[in-house]
Amino acid sequence: MKNILTLFLVFFGISTFAQEVKPYQIYNSKGKKISFEKMVKELQKSDLVLFGEFHDNSIVHWLQLKTIKALANKKPLILGMEMFERDNQVYLNEYLSGKLSEEDFAKSARLWNNYKTDYKPIVDFAKENQIEVIASNVPRKYASLVYKQGEEALLDLPEEEKNWIAPLPFPYDATLPAYVKMMEMFKDSDHANPNFPKAQAIKDATMGYSIVSNFKPNNLFVHFNGSYHSNDYEGIYWYVKKYNPEIKIATITVLEKANIYEISSTEKQLADYIIIVDEDMTKTF
Predict the structure, then answer these.
(1) Domain total for the chain?
(2) Contact 254, 53 (CB under 8 A)
(3) In terms of residue numbers, what domain contains 183?
(4) Whose CA is closest to 157, among 139, 172, 137, 136?
(5) Mapping DSSP to helix (H, G, I), strand (E, B) and coil, where does residue 17 land?
(6) What is the pLDDT of residues 195-232, one digit of tens each?
(7) pTM (2 d.p.)
(8) 8 Å CB contact between 85 and 140
(9) pLDDT (mean) for 231-235
(10) Which DSSP letter does residue 245 get?
(11) How many CA atoms lie within 13 A of 18 on its CB side?
(12) Is 129's pLDDT higher than 90?
């Protein structure tokens, strides 16, 4: 009897310790804890998943890969990525098809500095499984042009270059909370001019337009983007609904906190699924 009690206490202690060091917890928009498996099952009901991330969070990148691996067994997938700009689609396609080596791809496609650690596993999974990957983001130079000179400067671009941008003039609402917040955050800096949030909006609009343009019925489109681009059902979400209101969207966001077992009423409104990651999680850069 004493041995059984000892084993129970040891097992209970191990279980408790395992809970304490758990790296993340997933919640739904009601603030209820849910499992990764349940989230994946529910995502299958959508047409589009906007997976918001922190670009340097290692556990989230791992979860992204696990998510598409799980979903690929259930529905045909299309992937979209903020990390690739639209004018690099040709290089991305050539790498996925095997026509371009990894070395030449890296030289051509303006890869992010953390590509190898954070996004290469996703792209290589797509390559191995013949899954289409869409370069969804506006080329950085055009967002910079909007910031410096306004949307009007885009109208003077050659038609070929306009193909890399959402159709102009693009819809824009300066009163959306995300854009208002951007202005408030930088109100005392040199960044605070009316074009500052609009430079963010041209990214959101182009990613939204890229998704809608490449969307296919009976496929699940999974798009990876910084969480700020889809939090509060704004940004990319808002533009997708503008371009195609019929697309059923699920959103995921990430938070980093000391206590992963607490979620506030404000936090649970950020997205359909909230992944709270221990703030001590290793950063990739």
Answers:
(1) 1
(2) yes
(3) 24-278
(4) 139
(5) helix
(6) 999 999 999 999 999 999 999 999 999 999 999 999 99
(7) 0.91
(8) yes
(9) 98
(10) T
(11) 6
(12) yes
